[in-house]
Amino acid sequence: METKILKPTEENIRLAAEIIRNGGLVAFPTETVYGLGANALDSAAAAKIYEVKGRPSDNPMIVHIARASDIGQLTPRLSPDIVTLIDTFWPGPLTMVVKRKALVPDVTTGGLDTVAVRMPDNIAALALINEAGCPIAAPSANLSGRPSPTKAQHVIDDLSGKIEAVLAGEDCRVGIESTVVDMTGEIPTILRPGILTAEDISAALGKKVEYDKSLFVHPSRFPKENGCREKICTESSAAKSKDSDDLNAGFDDDFKPKSPGMKYKHYAPKAEMVVVEGQRDNVKAEIERLKMLNERLGNKVGVILFEEKAFIEAAHDLFADLRQMDKEDVDLILAGALSDNDGVGFAVMNRMLKSAGYNIVKV
Question: How far is Cα 45 from Cα 40, in angstroms, rounded to an integer?
Fold first, then answer.
């Protein structure tokens, strides 16, 4: 299949919308990451997304709409809290999980009775959805498990020859995926953290907002101390991969994620990756020590070390940095942990730890 690379002109947006209406796949920019879009109400089209990405079929997709009022097509009821969040944050990087109407197919929702919906804050994305005339299901436009794409070239690297078109617009200004909040219970619950924090949502609603307990499952399942720091890059990849392949072990077999990113390994670069966590000076010293050690062993080492409180910059740059290191064929990535006491820092650390397969060195 030849993948058309299209600038987001009016003519090309019409062409991309026609592809969507005809059951094809189009990657497009949003303010968060690039999405891989199909008609959300077309089971066969939505199923192609799973096939192309290699995405597990019980991992639900987010449905993107062009007008806030279009949420009424997808859910039977809007609570006052949902309306408040729409008025406050849409268009923007907030996804809400709501009860779904029957016209939303199982393949789009991962078989759940809920649907995740958002209105992106990107002119090209909104124009595409509006021109297509249907809601668009769109997870990140990458091969499943790889770092999410924040540039058109990232999409082309992963999906060229696999999809009909890429709407190659601007680089994504946020850089991590939207915050996902479950609005089906009494207490709004964040299923995936993002640039909009629990504090932001709580302030808008004037009520408590919780984080889903699955976001904190890793401390009980993965040791904070790495017992073999001296030979991070000398173990076989097979030995390293066992834990990475078992990252869902803490969940019951019948656990069905309500949001992308809750269950499966995500965002992994090709290189081995280690997150160094602790007091800032100790982190810097340990990264330098491990870098020198591994370079003496003949390994190519990349470092990700953001300024201590540069949370917005870290969100914007993390995935792009991981992809750049893939291009540079590094053997090991050493990343300095950010404070997760900050809401955005917590969201970035959610991605960073998953990228590393929870391979953590505490100093």
Answer: 8
